[in-house]
Amino acid sequence: MISVTEALLGRRSTRAFLDRPVAMEVVRDIIETARRAPSGGNLQPWKLAAMTGEDLKRLKASVRESFARNPKGEGPEYPIYPNPLKETYDERRRKCGEDMYAAIGIGRENKQGRLQQFVRNYDFFGAPVGMILAMDRTMGSAQWTDAGIFLQSVLLLAQERGLATCPQAAWAVVHKTVRAHLAWPDELAVICGISLGYADPAHPINAAVMDRAPFDDVAQLRGFTAASAQTLSSLAGQPA
Ligand SMILES: Cc1cc2nc3c(=O)[nH]c(=O)nc-3n(C[C@H](O)[C@H](O)[C@H](O)COP(=O)(O)O)c2cc1C
């Protein structure tokens, strides 16, 4: 079994999957375990639906119909990015897109190619399992943190089982169709979709590795000394 570190470092947003089913027991086990994620006040505000087979096909067909009626989507459930996005973050977002499209040879000017790739979101990138994560819309920022912790738990547990994933805020754009398909009440806000399956190792889009901002841009270490770090690492090797 891989370590948490290995799962974290090995996970990638995967956008091409093999045509290989995932057993219900495995999906159930991932969700059962992710339920142990912490949440403020133990609210456990998340709701998750996992679909495969005919049920998933029906959702995808409903989404295609929705886009045919309204190509702009159903209006996002929540602002997916702040508008305007501050420069630092806007640069990161652009680079993410550039790196992804470069991996499949789609240039900046190829708007049609970019759109076609974006639309693959609504096919769950060919994954055999599509999941939808939602939360009661009365919940606030603190509970969005909880949902994020739950989401990452699902992603890492899948990684541990040799599965690949892609979290997809794109699914929030078709929230009405998703709710209708799942017979969910309006009070549930669709946070994102999650593709789940076995990664296609041969597909170039899966070769894109997104970089990260430097450590010092996102974190600070204060009051530590090299000596105390050394003491800790030598203690780690001692029997309890
Ligand atoms: C909440 C959330 C929503 C995301 N939405 C999408 C999406 O709609 N479509 C997509 O292709 N990737 C989506 N991503 C994947 C990000 O682009 C990806 O996590 C980021 O570029 C870092 O790459 P990595 O996950 O491969 O490390 C989303 C990720 C998160 C956490």
CATH fourth-tier homologous superfamily: NADH Oxidase
Q: End-to-end span in angstroms?
A: 23 Å
Helical fraction equals 40-55%
CATH architecture: 3-Layer(aba) Sandwich
- Small molecules (ligands, ions, cofactors) in the structure: flavin mononucleotide
Q: From the structure provided, what is the oligomeric state, counting identical versus distinct chains?
A: single chain
List low-confidence stretches: none
Say how many strands there are. 4
Strand % is 5-15%
Tell me, what's the shape?
globular
The top-level CATH class is Alpha Beta
* Order of helical and strand elements: HHEHHHEHEHEHH
- Tally of individual domains: 1
Mean pLDDT: 95
Question: How are the strands of the largest sheet arranged?
Answer: 1-2-4-3
| Classification by helices and strands | alpha+beta
CATH topology grouping = NADH Oxidase
- The number of helical segments is 9
**Main sheet properties:** 4 strands, antiparallel
What is the CA-atom radius of gyration, in angstroms? 20 Å
List the helices and strands and how they pair.
Elements: H1 4-10, H2 24-34, E1 46-51, H3 53-69, H4 87-103, H5 111-119, E2 129-136, H6 141-160, E3 164-168, H7 175-182, E4 188-197, H8 215-218, H9 226-236
Antiparallel strand pairs: 1-2, 2-4, 3-4
Helix pairs in contact: 1-6, 2-6
Bound molecules: flavin mononucleotide.
Pfam family, one: Nitroreductase
Domain Nitroreductase: 9-198
Keywords: Flavoprotein, FMN, Oxidoreductase
